[in-house]
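Hi R.,

Here's the chain you asked about this morning:
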Amino acid sequence: MKTSEIRKMNKDEINSKIVELKKELFDLRMKQAVGNLDKPHKINALRKDVARLKTILAEKDGSEE
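And the predicted structure, written out as tokens:
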């Protein structure tokens, strides 16, 4: 997910996307624990996407004050 796409979203969309990605990350971790994970690199990519979303959300919160 590109930062330019994230910056176009409003706060509610960003929060819902964070929740969605965290659920997907949880599912991937469960598959990894069981040993059924085909693409382990997706875990790292999802973690970075969540970090990007949280960073831009914090920027938006700080700019409104």
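The chain has one domain: 3-63.

Let me know if you need anything else.
M.
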